[in-house]
Every structure is written in structure tokens, then in C-alpha cells.
Amino acid sequence: MSNSNHYDVFIAGGGPSGIAAALAASRAGARTILVEKNPYFGGTWTAGGMSLIIDYNNKCGILAEIKQCLSARGAFKRRHGNSGIFTVEPMKLLLDELLSASDCTLKLHTILLDAEVRDGRIAAVRTAGKSGIERYTAEVYIDATGDGDLAARAGCGFDMGDPEQGKLQPGTMFGLVGGWPDPLPDAMQVKADLLAGGHALTYTGVTLFTQPGQPGLAFIMQSHLYDLDPTDTDSLTRAEIEGRADVARAVETLVASGKPEYAGLFLITAGPSASIREGRRIHGRYTLTAEDCRRGRRFEDAVTTATFNFDVHHVDPTKPNPYDAYGTRNKVLKDVPGELYGEYVPPYDIPYRSLLARDVDNLFMTGRCISGDFLAHSSYRVTGNAVPIGEAAGKAAALCVAQHKLPADVSVAEVQAIVREMSATSME
Question: Going by CATH, does the domain composed of 3-160+349-422 fall within 3.90.640.10?
Fold first, then answer.
């Protein structure tokens, strides 16, 4: 193996959290490589068509940079509350620009194969792409795959699913639809028209997401992909096929209704891939719990503060939603009774220790695969939190390299100071 395949920081996954980790690490001077399975960066933002950033108001740094750049291009606007909506294609181009302007080595069309572990540390990883199988070594590794693939291949322990049934939240297949009138029809009217047309809605919380700067275009969210295990190839294959068919049928149903507001509708693309809400939650040095969230707990090693409510898309539509029972403690959101459970929680911190793998000493987790329980995960998993978590992991990884320390041994105060310094620009 040549020295060209050795890096300071190796990052698996180029979604929102992996992008932030790569930018933060490379800007801090670490020789960084970012590998991504898709032909473009952005993860659920781009491949999943989830053109919404939730929990962004109190976030600075790289998330602020992305929002401000998109706003300058007319590709971002506030939706309501603590969420903003963006246009997917400008997001793809912006991420290309930001990453290409950094010193980070970029590898698209590249999947993670396995990891070699020696003495409790990752010694190397292997990837596969058009160039064949390649082996990389690094001082520090960051798992930004969303599903915890790198950590799992390194032998880390993890949890999946809810404690009552062991099932995961459903995924969603978004559909980009053209020909919408201005203004957009009310989403609940769209829902009623779908039901009236005989469409079997798998998710009755129908939502439309406009594309700023692109009149007549909006993503429709009307599907739940149940029993979707994102770590299983057969499960993913079934979900992708079912999801695309469901989106197509929904558009056909609206057009066939005969209503003039739907006459010009046409499906541009489904997905391109299913959007995943939940995968592995890797065991870390600290497990963030629902009680931590409910109490608005503050941590001395905080890397960011989350402000989003619990958001559980019911795991099994054939049974009563067990999470409604939690509503006795705080105000409950029941936008879709029995199908979506939400509970307000006060702002709470995400601790640095939840980013550190318990079973491998030189591995960070970032994004939705950090260490937390089922309900806590339903809050912190959104991309407005994934980006600052990734930013903190990237900065901490660069610090590990500079100081020749393991992630658990670096000064958290130093990590926090660096994150504050680079986060001088507010989102608002």
C-alpha cells in the first residue's frame, strides 16, 4: 500500500453530517478523505429528496454557511417554526463547490466494504468502486453513514428499533412533482382528494414541499415504507420498488380526479432513493436518553443544543401506537393520531461522549447513528442537528491528529472553543 492511501481522518458517508465533518477537519489542517456511495453528496438532502432542514434556528458554523449561500442563490426560505426549505439541485452544486474548495480528498461511487481492527482500534478500511478495491489507513475514523455501517463493520455494539417491538420507524419515498398551481393546494385537501380517488395512503400526514426559485415544482410526501431495515439489501430493494410505485399512483390519482388544480401535474422523479429515518444507534461513551431530553439536560461536554420535539413515525400500523402513552408528561403533538407521535421537549445538549464509540478507541460517530435511545433519537436525528454534530466530530478529529491523542483523551473544552470560534456567524 502506498503512502497516498494514508490519511489523518477517514470519513465514511457524505450526507449532511459527513460533509460538515469533512469541511471541519480539512479546514483545520487535517489530511482528510470523504467517501460516499452515491454519485453526489448530500445524503437524505439530495438522494432522499428531503429538502427540509429542521432545527436550524440556533445553529451557526457550517450549517449557517450552507443556509446563507443557498439564500443568496434564491434556493432557501423559512418554512415555519424551526424549519427551512431548500431547492435540491442548488444544494448539490453548493456542496460540490464547498468540498472541492477544501483540501479534502473526495471519492464518489465508493462503498465501504469492511474494517480491520487491531488492539481496539481501526487499523484500516477497504472500499470498492469503479477503480476496484482500495485499502486506506488513518489516525482517526468518522462514521457518517447514517446507519452506522463503519462502526458495525468494526465490531461495535449497537441498538436498532423501538424497545416495545424492536421495529424501526418507516422510511419515506418523496416524489418531485411538476405542474402545481400557485399557490399550492392545501396539503389536507390533497390528502382528501387522494382518499376520495381510492389511493391507499400509507401516511395520512400528506405534506408538500415547494422548491424555492422553481415555480410549479414541489415534493410530495404521502408514503410510509414500513418494515424497512436500511441495513438489509432485500428490505431496501422492496422499499425502493414499492415507494416509487406509490408516488406514481398518487400523482395519477390526483390527475384522474378531474380537478383543474391537478390537471397539469406530472411526476419528475421519485426519490431518487428512499429517505431513511432510523438505522443503527451505535453504543457510545454516553447514551443520550429520553429523560435527558425531557429535563433539558445540559452537559459539560456539549457540542450542540437540540430544540426539536420527539418525532416518532409509528413503527407498526397494524397495532396501536404505544408512544401516545408518553403524552401524559408534556404537551403532545398529534398531527396524525395513531400514526405520528410528537412530544415537546425543552432545549437539551448533545454530549461529546455520545459521538465516541464505546468499543473502538479511534472512531467517532456522527449524524443519526450517535449513541442514544429510541425516543431521544427521534429528536436529534434531524439534519439541523446532524450538521453541527459532524462539525464537532471533524474539529475534534483534527485535534486528535495534531495532538497525537485518541478521541476520548482530547480536551473537550478545546473542542468547544474551536467550534465556537468557527461558528461566529449566526443563522439569523
Answer: no
